[in-house]
Amino acid sequence: MDSPDTDATLKILVVDENPIRRAIIEDGLKEAGFSNVVTLATTTRLVDHIYKLDPDVILMDFENPSRDVLDQMFQVSRVVRRPIAMFVDQAGRASISAAIDAGVSAYIVDGLKKERVSAILEMTISRFRVFNKLRIELDEAKSALRDRKIIDRAKGALMKSKGLDEEAAYALLRKTAMRQSRRIAEVAESLLSALDLLDSTNGDER
Amino acid sequence: MSEGAARPRDSQSEIHAGFIPLVDCAPLVIAKELGFDAEQNFALFLHRDVSWANIRDKVEAGVLDCAIMLAPMPLASTLGLGGRRAVPLIAAMSTNLNGNAITVSRALYDEMLKADRASAVAGGMESAKSLASVVARRRVEGAEPLTLGMVYPFSSHNYDLRYWLAAAGIDPDNDVNLVVVPPPLIAGSLKAGRIDGFCVGEPWNSVAVAEGNGVIVATKPELWVASPEKVLGLKLEFPERYPELTLKLIRALTMACAWLDSRENRLTAAEILAKPSYVGISKELLLRVLTDDMKRGTGATEPATTDAVIFHKNGANFPWVSHASWILTQMIRWGQVRAPFDITEVVRRVYRPDLYRDAVRSLGLQTPDDDVRREFGAAFFGGETFDPAMPLDYLRRLSMRDRTVDLTLFDEQAR
């Protein structure tokens, strides 16, 4: 903080094909005072991009096979203007496990101060966790929506074939699910596939 | 996988192993699918990964117990190459030999045919000569240098490709542009014209041939008939902490390798490996390397392939310390390591035939009396000789190497 080399001047490159995660990390870093953040969505010609951008720090997700491309780049240090080492080398063992667990890797220019490195790593790990949590919630929301649609269709089928009202149709599905120790959506799905089968064997057009 | 370093699971009877989707992952997959792990009273858990860097980091951090690794990887980690902190890893056995090939784009193959038909058609070491003619012509014409892909800096693919190029007088660092491309992306990169050729493990050569974009110009056994490829990589501490479990793991993998080398099992192996959770490529393409039926895409009569991949026979699982010495010579040759060290000392620390011998004794398997062997004759890069007792002499004899690496410093380290 005493030198002109402040957090704001540190150039951080985020390489991530996932647009949502990319945005989440960029926002997090900017909020933490790292204003010089560049993002890259593609890994085509990655090495060329990195030479051109000349970042101090590179963040990349573990799902990206192009981590191996970076390994080559850092290995042939004589062609790189500034040698870069994998970031987690400087962090402690717990940070390495945490980074792997969250799914992020980071690379820094050699000689960057440890405290600044830690700040970036912690921020990125927490943002990756936020994203992972979001992804799980999104998956759950999608499957809940799918379940509701299936249950609605099954209710409709029961109302039509057994002359029940909506409430009675739902009660029947729920009772069956409880008796069979299954989820209502599963019972609804079996019912619909059984109906499909009957329709097709009757030669109907569905 | 959760907080890896702490090993919260049953550490005496579980092993978590990583792999990259390649035919070479077969020993782990077969050990699990056919129950060779249960036979040895432990449970194997497999974790597919997307990059070699991930495999290395996860084993180093203890998130994975072991992995099928590129043979040079435990050496690179132990030496702390690539600007990284040194983490001692070991190779407890070889899990396969060969399995690679060099493929060029159809357009480049046509250029090679035009430049030197006999050499291009001959394949193997010979075919690089026609490439050398192409490279020379392009230089005269002022064309862009060719771009060739390989999968990782510390890989047999890198050293094989460089060896093949250098033998024909092509300088891999100045005459062509060598780039890393992850295996699953390599056929696509060839198709898109981003690279002109590559060296990769199967089935990715066959994928490029099947798509009509690639021609295989050399298979690994044509360069070196039984050459080091993948090893079982572990942290140095693992066998100290879990001695029995380590021996069980080596036995289970060795049994899987023996099963894999029986020809009658290769169709079953291809069916299992084709699953999306393993390699995820059709069994027809996997069978090409597994049954020595490599289709090269030349359109002409193709030479037969022998031992395109070896999992077990002729003591293939023995971790030859001389393999490690040879790999180190290639690292020094191409300037991947400059700080001098004692080659003999490092190879003994990393390659561990002692563990392998201990493990397979109860299986009744014979192991060699020596830990090293000489490589020579037509079987070894077209007639060269590697004497593991004198690796630096071998290095000095090689026609091309990074001359800025001072070999006399390595002489001083050798006892």
Topology:
The complex is a heterodimer of chains A (206) and B (415).
Chain A: E1 12-15, H1 19-31, E2 37-40, H2 46-53, E3 57-61, H3 67-75, E4 84-86, H4 93-102, E5 104-109, H5 114-162, H6 166-180, H7 184-201
Helix pairs in contact in A: 1-5, 4-5, 5-6, 5-7, 6-7
Chain B: E1 14-19, H1 26-33, H2 36-39, E2 43-48, H3 52-61, E3 66-70, H4 72-79, E4 89-98, E5 100-105, H5 106-115, H6 117-122, H7 127-141, E6 147-150, H8 156-167, E7 177-180, H9 183-191, E8 197-201, H10 204-210, E9 214-219, H11 220-223, E10 228-235, H12 237-241, H13 243-261, H14 266-273, H15 283-290, E11 309-310, H16 321-333, H17 343-350, H18 353-360, E12 375-376, E13 385-386, H19 391-397, H20 407-413
Parallel strand pairs in B: 1-2, 1-3, 6-7, 6-8
Antiparallel strand pairs in B: 3-10, 4-10, 4-11, 5-8, 5-9, 12-13
Helix pairs in contact in B: 1-13, 5-7, 9-10, 13-18, 14-15, 16-17, 16-19
Characterise this structure.
The complex is a heterodimer of chains A (206) and B (415). In chain A, strands 2-1-3-5-4 form a five-stranded mixed beta sheet. In chain A, 31% of the residues are buried. Chain A has two domains: 125 residues, D-Maltodextrin-Binding Protein, domain 2; 60 residues, Arc Repressor Mutant, subunit A (Orthogonal Bundle). Chain A is α/β, with parallel strands linked by helices and 206 residues long. About 2% of the residues of chain A have low confidence. In chain A, helix 1 links the parallel strand 1 and strand 2. Chain B has 415 residues and is α/β, with parallel strands linked by helices. Chain B folds into two domains: 206 residues, Periplasmic binding protein-like II (D-Maltodextrin-Binding Protein, domain 2, 3-Layer(aba) Sandwich), CATH 3.40.190; 126 residues, D-Maltodextrin-Binding Protein, domain 2. Chain B is built from 20 helices and 13 strands. Chain B has a six-stranded mixed beta sheet with strand order 2-1-3-10-4-11, with helices on both faces. A five-stranded mixed beta sheet of chain B has the order 7-6-8-5-9, with helices on both faces. A two-stranded antiparallel sheet of chain B has the order 12-13. In chain B, a hairpin with an 8-residue loop joins strand 12 and strand 13. In chain B, helix 1 packs across helix 13 and helix 14 crosses helix 15. The longest helix of chain B is centred in the middle third of the chain and has 19 residues.
